Each structure stands twice: as structure tokens, then as C-alpha cells.
Amino acid sequence: MFDRFGLYSRGNIHFSRDGTLGNTLKRLVRESETGWTQRELQELLRVRVQVLLLGAVHQEEMRRDSVGGLYLYVHIEPSIGEVQLQRRRERIAARPSGEMEIVRLNDSAIIQVLLSLIRKRSINLRP
């Protein structure tokens, strides 16, 4: 029933074996081999996670470090977090030179960008 990440979806309703989104984020970060970016977690969980991630960092339940121009959320235990960071660096280094990471925007992000552009344009058109 639950997938390898402990998640289950039925239509637009999503469940986690951890019960709450916060608990799910903490478990995913603790169990990860290479840490997670905010975008990766958001795409996996299909919900915005930035506020909960920052809250967990401030409460010292996970750590945030910059790797390859992105923030990476890793285990709070320094020895485990460093292994996660090193594995992510190795994964980045293994990409062929010049290969860029493909960023996929979800429908919500696309709509937000379009609305922002429309608002800006309508402001500029006013006399």
C-alpha cells in the first residue's frame, strides 16, 4: 500500500505512514543517502514544504547546507549529515560536464508565475 517513501495517494488525497507532514519530512531527511532539496521534497510530497523545513532547521531537527548552488537538508547528526553531503557532491560531480539539472515546474508554480506577470503588466499599462 505505501510506497518506498512511506507515502500513499488515493486521487488527490495523500497519506504518510508518519501521520503528519512534519514527521514525514524529518524521516525522509534522516533516512536519505544524499539529503533532499526543498524542490525534491515538494515534488515528492506534492505540497509546499519550505516553512516546515525552515522550522525543523531552527528547532535543530535537521541541518541545511549549500551544495552545488542549492540548499540541501540533511541529518542533524554531523557525522551522518556529512556523509549525505559528500554523497550529494559525488552525485553532482558525476554528471557529464555542462549537463544541467532539469527543473520541472508544477501547475501551481506556473500559474503563480503567470499571475505575477499579468499583474505586473496591468500595473505598467495604467495611465
Report on the structure:
By secondary structure, the protein is of the alpha+beta class. The protein has a single domain, classed as Arc Repressor Mutant, subunit A, CATH 1.10.10. It has five helices and five strands. The strands form two sheets. It has a three-stranded antiparallel β-sheet. It has a two-stranded antiparallel sheet with strand order 1-2. Strand 4 (63-67) and strand 5 (70-74) form a beta hairpin. It is globular. The protein starts with 6 loop residues before the first strand and ends with a helix.
Estimated share of beta-strand residues: 15-25%
The CATH topology annotation reads as Arc Repressor Mutant, subunit A
Strand order of the largest sheet: 3-5-4
Number of strands: 5
Q: What is the correct CATH architecture?
A: Orthogonal Bundle
Structural class: alpha+beta
Short description:
This protein is of the alpha+beta class and 127 residues long. The chain has helices spanning 21-31, 38-45, 50-58, 78-93, 107-125; strands at residues 7-10, 13-16, 36-37, 63-67, 70-74.
Produce the secondary structure layout.
Elements lengths: L6 E4 L2 E4 L4 H11 L4 E2 H8 L4 H9 L4 E5 L2 E5 L3 H16 L13 H19 L2
Antiparallel strand pairs: 1-2, 3-5, 4-5
Keywords:
50% helix, Arc Repressor Mutant, subunit A, two-stranded antiparallel sheet, 16% strand, alpha+beta, single chain, 127 residues, three-stranded antiparallel beta sheet, 5 helices
